[in-house]
Here is the input.
Amino acid sequence: MNRRIRISAILLIAVFVFTMSGAAFADVPSGVEDGVLTIAMECAYAPYNWTQSDDSNGAVPIANVPGSYANGYDVMIGQRICEANGWELEVIQSDWDSLVPGVQTGTFDAVIAGQSMTSERAEQVDFAGPYFYATIVCLTKADSPFANAAGLADLAGGSCTAQIATIWYDTCLPQITGANLLPAAETAPAMLMALETGMVDFVCTDMPTAQGAVAAYPDMVILDFSGTDGDFQFTEQERAENVNIGVSMMKGNTVLHEAIDSVLSEMTVDDFNSLMEYAISIQPLSED
Here is the structure.
C-alpha cells in the first residue's frame, strides 16, 4: 500500500469512528420518555437529602425503600425540574459509590446528590448546573483545642476524616500538614458521628453539610477559613470544581441535559441559598 492510499485509509477509519461515536451519543435515550424522571441519592446526606417516615414538608416516596420518604435540598431541586417539564419525580436510594455507575448503566436517569462537578467525574458522566455553590469548611467540637483555629496550620496534630470518595478527603485534608488522616467514613452521617463521639478532632465538608450538622449537633462549630491565606489552596479550575454542585447524567444525554439546564439557569444564587436555608430548617435532628 503506497503512502497516499495508506493516509486515505486512515482518514476513512477516523471518519467512521467519529461518525459511529456521534451516532452512539445521538441514540442515548433521555430516560424521561415515560414522563418520569428517576433520580438517585443517598437519602442520608442532610441537608442535601435525607430519609423520613412520612410525606411531611413535601417529601417523596423512596421507590426502592417501601414506607420511607426522601426530602432535602436535592429533592426540592428535583421537584422544580419536574414541575417545569411536566414530569413525575421518582427517587431511588443508592450508596455514594454506586451513583456514577448507576448513571452510566442507565439504572437511573440522573443523580441529584450534592455531587461536586469534578473533572474526574466529568470524564464519566455529563453535568447540568450548577445547582449550588458550596464553600469548603471544617467542623470541630466547641470544646476542642482546635475550636479557635484561624487557618489550616492551626489544625496540625489533630486527627481527622471526611466522607469517602470526596474532594474533602482526597484533596482537602491532605493539605493540612501534621494532621493525622484516619480512614474515610462511608457516609456523611458516619463522618459526623466520628466527630461527635470523639474518634476524630475535626472533619472536612462543605458549608451546607456543616450548617446542617450544627443544627443537629449544637456542640459542633464551623471553621471557615475562606478568604484567608490559611484556606485550602486550589487552582482556579480546582476551585470551580470544588464549589460547584451539579446534576449528573449519562454521557451524551443532551435532551435531559438541556431540559435540566433550562430550569437551573433561571435560578439565582439567592434562590439556591434560600432553598438550602429552608432545607436546613426542616431537616430531622437525627436520621433513621
Remarks:
- Residues 1-25 have pLDDT under 50 and may be disordered.
